[in-house]
Amino acid sequence: MDEKDWSSLITIFDEKSLTRAAKKLYISQPSLTYRIRELERELNIKIFVKGKGVVKFTKEGQLIAEYSKKMLLELNKLKEELCKISQPNTGILNITAGETFGHTELPDILSSFRELYPDIKFNVSSINPNNLLDSLVNADSHITIVRSDVDWNGPKLLLRKDPIYLISKMPITLKDLPKLPRINFILTTSTKKAIADWWQESFNQLPLIGMSVNRSETCLEMVRQRFGYAIAPLYLPQIKKLETELSLQPLRHNDDTLYEINLFAYYREEIAEIKIVKTFIKFLQQYFTAQNS
Q: Are 142 and 267 in contact, with CB atoms under 8 Å apart?
């Protein structure tokens, strides 16, 4: 077994699906299945069994998954120790980000950072909002950037506050919302709670969910096609782009203040001592200070 095997097993264990795991690992499902079968033959065990749309790990498979997590963690610690003695302008930076942020903003941020440190390489992965705390605890990345207030004992950096908007193809009167279909997509727990709080503050009946999708881009396209409205946090460049084609209304408390979600960068204290990570944290502070001003 090697690093790729450990990563594959952990991803399958977390995703409970070969299809999703293969997609996340950027390999074909047949290749992933073949490697798992090779491991089973090598270890003379059954790692998991396929259920209806999911995979279920055997007791032996669970032990292998736990072993893989420990080995990958130890390998990351070794890499981090080696990075501590390297220069801040070289190395690999592992970043986990929320799906929307990773798609819309992170490329520009990393491009600006690379201009300063052209020899730095990046490993970027998307975070599952339901596994956010596990990702932080298990040291899956150097830094995690996401719109969520997590019960986290380590350091975190507040990057920005993003207002939450009602997004529709045409202007909507708020009192009509309970009768109109909403398009939902995957959001962090903090964002879902803020939206639910606003709804309970505004209405005494449940929203009408007309559609659920996985990605924010799909949700916005469905809004454009008039399948319903959406509610989501937006940042300024995104607002400027969308307001030319969609109707945007910020959600407000009864006292007229905005509903906002914090965008945080989470990391571990020991990780921040790595030169490349320390350099990137300082860059993020400067980048968002300039953006917010």
A: yes
CATH number for 1-85 (one of 2.40.50.140, 1.20.1440.230, 1.10.10.10, 3.40.50.1820): it is: 1.10.10.10
What is the pLDDT at residue 218? 92
**Domain residue spans in the chain?**
1-85, 88-293
Least reliable range by pLDDT among 92-106, 107-121, 275-289: 92-106
CB burial of residue 229 (10 Å; 0-12, 13-18, 19+): buried
Rounded-to-integer distance, Cα 147 and Cα 131, Å: 14
Find the DSSP H helices in the chain: 3-15, 18-25, 29-43, 59-84, 99-104, 106-116, 132-137, 189-202, 216-224, 236-242, 275-292
Q: Which amino acid is residue 52, in one-letter code?
A: K
The tens digit of pLDDT for each residue in 128-153 reads: 666 666 666 566 688 989 888 887 88
Class of the 88-293 domain? alpha beta
Average pLDDT over residues 271-276: 84
